[in-house]
Amino acid sequence: MTDSLLPGPLWLAGCGNMAGAMLARWLEQGVDPAHVSVVRPSGRAVEAEVRVTTTWPEDEVPAIVLLGVKPWQLDAVAEKLAPILDPETILVSILAGVELASLRDRFRAPRNIIRAMPNLPVRIGRGVIGLHGHGDLEARALVTGLMAVLGHAEWIEDERAFELVTSLSGSGPAFTYRFIDALAKAAVALGLPEAQALGFARAAVEGAAALAGTGSASLAERAREVTSPNGTTEAGLLVLDAELDDLIMRTLAAARRRSLEMAAEARRD
User: Best label site of 29, 129, 202, 216, fewest CB within 10 Å?
Assistant: First the structure.
């Protein structure tokens, strides 16, 4: 097998929105679909030429398994998958809230178990992927390379901090989409046609995010560049700043709290 990103067969346990976005990007970046198997109960096809089965393949041992099912499906998947895996298999989980200890409790054979928390922009190579886990240097390097083609991949050494990545970057796109939608809806309510309002809101956020990633200016400095004394931006910020920090704190805290609850459920507490 010759594949610049894979050392052997890749199995995907489930292929929903996130795992599907990861797979689509990997295939675009050169992963051979012949090296990929998707196992899903529906048997529904995914990307062209990728094998889809309803049971675990019997003609190979996977080099990497990506757990992409819902957290509540973990036990059912582990019951049949765990006995198949080899000590050399790298198990990568994108299951929110499922800690390493819970994964190790169900999958005893693999030496390397790694958690990954991607977000949906991985589909266009602009994702953020937090990584955490028990892996030797070779396994960590391999997973880093596989994730790097999806966007910015970064290792988090403290699992407690990793849970915050779920709330911040994992859930962040949904929060951002809601903000864009709220901007557009407000503009429509104040008189702008809907299509124009949404187009302007999307473009404004996209451009602001791109500029935020350039140069050495802080985000506060970027905001000041837009804000003229006693101008329109200042008037709007007086309203936004009165509630935004507290709102975002409560938003992230709620997401993190649910992540911790899911971790307890996976531990069977």
Answer: 216
- Both tokens assigned to 61: 């041992």
User: For residue 125, which phi and psi values (nearest 5 degrees)?
Assistant: 75, 20
Residues 6+ apart with CB under 8 A from 223: 237
User: How far is the C-alpha of 135 from the C-alpha of 90, rounded, in Å?
Assistant: 8
CA distance 142 to 114: 11
CB of 180 closer than 8 Å to CB of 209: no
Query: Cα 21 to the chain's mean position, in Å?
Result: 9
64 with 6: CB under 8 angstroms? yes
- Integer Cα distance of 143 and 141 in angstroms: 6
- Residue partners of 182: CB distance under 8 A and separation at least 6: none
> Model pTM greater than 0.85?
yes
| Mean pLDDT per 10-residue section of the chain, whose length is 269 residues | 81 95 95 94 87 92 95 94 95 95 96 96 96 92 96 94 90 95 98 97 95 92 94 95 95 93 85
Residue 153 to residues 27, 94, 156: CA-CA distances in angstroms? 18, 13, 10
Contact (CB, 8 A) for 61 and 9: yes
- What is the separation of C-alpha 120 from the centre of its chain, rounded to a whole number of angstroms? 6
